[in-house]
């Protein structure tokens, strides 16, 4: 019987349950281990530069890019680490 990886593939909606408690927590308490210098720091301990064109957070030990957050009307773009690409979150409407 041939192995078919597509038979085990789910769409991103499968992440809704596992990620829901993560995004409901205070993100500043999340611990990051820097892949460059191995320093452990919470998001709250990162060095942040900005505000334009967005907030850039860097490792306090070696300044490697940790994340970028760019807010636009109605959306938040989030890039994690030094990889390319970003996630766009739709923000709740103001006042409601
Ligand atoms: Zn580092």
Report the sheet with the most strands, covering strand number, pairing sense and barrel closure.
5 strands, antiparallel
Mean pLDDT: 88
Which class do the helix and strand fractions yield? mainly beta
How far is it from the N-terminal to the C-terminal residue, by CA? 54 Å
Low-confidence stretches are none
Looking at the structure, what is the overall shape? globular
Number of helical stretches of at least 4 residues: 1
Strand order of the largest sheet: 3-4-5-6-7
Count of β-strands: 7
Beta-strand content estimate = 25-35%
Radius of gyration: 17 Å
Q: What percent of the residues sit in helical stretches (DSSP H or I)?
A: under 10%
Q: What is the string of helix and strand elements?
A: HEEEEEEE
Bound molecules: zinc ion
Protein name: DUF6510 family protein
Pfam families: DUF6510
InterPro entries: DUF6510 (IPR045423)
What can be said about this structure in brief?
8% of the residues lie in helices and 32% in strands.
Topology readout:
Blueprint: H1 16-23, E1 31-33, E2 40-42, E3 47-49, E4 55-58, E5 65-72, E6 75-80, E7 87-90
Antiparallel strand pairs: 1-2, 3-4, 4-5, 5-6, 6-7
Organism: Streptomyces tabacisoli
Protein name: DUF6510 family protein
Pfam family, one: DUF6510
Describe the 3D structure.
By secondary structure, the chain is mostly beta strands. It is 8% helix and 32% strand. The protein is built from one helix and seven strands; from the N terminus they run H-E-E-E-E-E-E-E. A five-stranded antiparallel sheet has the order 3-4-5-6-7, with no helix packed on it. Strand 5 (65-72) and strand 6 form a beta hairpin. The protein starts with 15 loop residues before the first helix and ends in a 6-residue tail after the last strand. The model has no long low-confidence stretch (mean pLDDT 88). Bound molecules: zinc ion. Zinc ion is lined by residues 34, 36-37, 39, 59, 61-62, 64.
């Amino acid at each position: 019987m041939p192995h078919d990886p597509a038979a085990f593939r789910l769409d991103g909606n499968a992440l809704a349950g596992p990620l829901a408690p993560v995004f409901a927590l205070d993100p500043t308490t999340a611990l990051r281990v820097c892949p460059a210098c191995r320093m452990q720091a919470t998001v709250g301990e990162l060095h942040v530069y900005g505000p334009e064109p967005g907030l850039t957070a860097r490792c306090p030990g070696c300044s490697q890019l940790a994340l970028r957050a760019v807010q636009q009307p109605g959306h938040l773009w989030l890039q994690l680490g030094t990889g390319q690409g970003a996630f766009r979150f739709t923000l709740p409407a103001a006042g409601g």
